[in-house]
Amino acid sequence: MQSFLNLRNTLLFVGLLTVWRLYLSATLQLHPDEAYYWLWSRHLDMGYFDHSPIVAYFIWLTTLFSKSELWVRLPGTLVIITASWLTWQLAMRMFNSTSIAAGSVMLFNATPLSMLGLIVITPDIPVYLFWALSVYLMWLIIQQQQAWQWYALGLAFGLALLSKYTALLLLPSLLAYLLLTDDRHWLQTRHPWLAMMLGFFCFMPVIIWNSRHGWISFVFQFHHGLDSDSYAFGRVGEFFSSQLLLVGPLVWLAGMYAAFKTLKSGDKPMLMLAAASLPVILIFGGISIIKLAGPNWTAFAYFSLLILFTRYFLGSTIPAMRYLWYVSLFSTLLLSLLITLHTRFSILPLAKFSPAMAVTDATNAFYGWRELGRDLEQIPGQKIAIAPSHQLGAEIIYYTDEKLQVRTDAGARASQFNIWNQTAKPPVAHGIYVWSNDDSPPQNASDLPAYAHLQTLTILRKQVAVKQFHIMPDTVQHAPTTQAKRRLTL
Prior knowledge:
Blueprint: H1 7-27, H2 32-41, H3 54-62, H4 69-95, H5 98-110, H6 112-117, H7 124-144, H8 149-161, H9 170-180, H10 191-202, H11 204-212, H12 216-226, H13 234-247, H14 249-262, H15 268-275, H16 278-287, H17 302-314, H18 319-345, H19 350-353, H20 355-360, H21 369-377, E1 384-387, H22 390-399, E2 405-409, H23 416-419, E3 423-424, E4 432-436, E5 455-461, E6 464-472, E7 484-489
Parallel strand pairs: 1-2, 1-4, 2-3, 5-7
Antiparallel strand pairs: 4-6, 5-6
């Protein structure tokens, strides 16, 4: 089987999965988060309410000539290809083994993380890229002992911070490696400290933006990640369970075991990989006691953990350990194909087990938005829509081809719409009120005369009503004489 792991087969493997990812990118409607980040790209700035800005610049670059779903998501595919190259290069430099390099690249491309998670355009995509580049540059420093490389690392760290605030965890990760090895001598030089300062200097645009907006983004992220009224150890188990689906159960469990075993090995390459993954996963696991961490928050940690897992098992002289690696690869690939095929073609008969499962299916987030936009465009004389969330508002703007302006309702969660002063306070007299069955109706909507003439758009998926939109024109003049209901099957 070792002969299977070569450059030619790796290119073929990655190429086939890339075609599948491009197909998904082109045919799935935008997830609400994606639509929101796409909207950022229409208003470029040094910072945003929720995150650092690079995701908006990535989308802006790929949508210069087309804003179709494929082009909005193209940065994800490009980052996966670049990260695959970095994975190959790092594995070759660390272990000088084509089979380890090929196995690491194949495993990365086979995971649900890269098959779906990294094509959905979010800040996780640029931060994964610059985290991976930072880890690669750190190993160059260890391998070549060139002081100037610290400044390249500082720049990569700065770009990672400009992608997502959680890139700050690169500092304890790299510090952990230095303290565990004789490479700690670098800490007695000025270069790591100046590199860190360079990284924070690159981050200055976000700091300046926040200073002009009352530090609103930093405050929001602090409360989003740490603010909670309760402590629950059960959330830690829930968080770690979510990680099983990110890279596959066997890969995660065996990879974590290998990472902990590595800490006692004294093997520098393996220690470097463990230091760039374990602290991130454990920190977010610990945070979950206070507030459940999102499953995607750890995504960039798996750049190094997947290489570590491959080296530990595939590089073993014990046949059973090598066999476990192959079983892990194919089981993870099977899981990814199952998830993506269901996302695109609804192959899992969830309704037969439980109608509630079909309704709460997370992949429903990719459906119904184009149909909603089409319905809204057919209402004459309307220019403004009011939505109870920033995500629904962004979907309306995207799928009406920016023909409708959107205001978020006064009761909506604070978002970038507040920065743009696009929050309806008091309710707009002449606008379409839109909300879904997952939302509360916009504040005071029931006081308007058109409420009695509500239109309902029901989205069916495999004959199951998975989503319902409520549309209320601004006046009785634009509303139908009776309540209208439409059901669309996807």
